[in-house]
Amino acid sequence: MNKNKNSKIFKSGYVGLIGRTNTGKSTLINNIVGRNAVITSDKAQTTRNRINCIYNTPVYQAVFVDCPGFFKPRNLLGKKLNSIIYEVLSDVDVICAVVDAAAGIGRGDRYVFEQVKNKSKPSILVLNKIDLLPDSALKELPGMIHELKKEYNFFKDILIISARTGENVSGLLDMVSGMLPAGPKYFPDNMVTDMPLAKMVSEIIREKLSENLFEELPHSVSVAVENMVQSRTSGKEDITRIECSIYVEKKSHKAMIIGKSGANLKKTGELSRMELESFLGTKVYLELWVKVLENWTKNEHYINKLGYA
What we know:
Rossmann fold; 9 strands; globular
């Protein structure tokens, strides 16, 4: 059994963040680990993979698992994303059901609660985005929490937080630590996420696409790193050369992402390159191509090829 310097039992475990789309799960993880480990956006289906992010203290290691938000699937990709959520629910030690308190609790949230209940695991209901609530709604929170505790008494507790501002995130961490089982360190102290480097690069580019084309960006966009090589310039500077493909389902989507005279793709490339240089700590030469894979979200071969197996 692992023990720390004070001979206390070391604790560790996986903590699943579960909820509908856009409840702030990715923002919460980034706040906890202190960096942008996962991409965030108000657009549905931003998170498409299971992503493990590691939070270390001297007495415990919590591996927070970000995953897609629950939504009604419209194609094979949607079914694949929902299957990831059910796997996470089965695998983790602690479940945090995250709700957008500003949007109110709806039918989708209640469906999530039932999935949590069925797993009979230590769980917390997290009411996020309280920074967006007006004073009148904040005054009603105690009564709402009281009713939720009666209706969903399988939750160990209900916490109100703001992932964006960090309000009461420390309280959530304290509660999670008390629910973790005794166990070893699964990851080294200096590791923030186990996501492969190429996947992190592709996610950064997809985030910049979302920022640049938020209203118009189709759900069926995927980014794949085709080649990534680090070398040195003639001036002895480290440089990372990255070649990426942006996959879409329709020619109209391709035109949208490229933009008039290539303006949208150029802007996405510039934003991505700046973020990647900060992330990688080197100069970056980035090439982006937009390719059409017709109906790829309905084709298992393409879905697997693009990393959603």
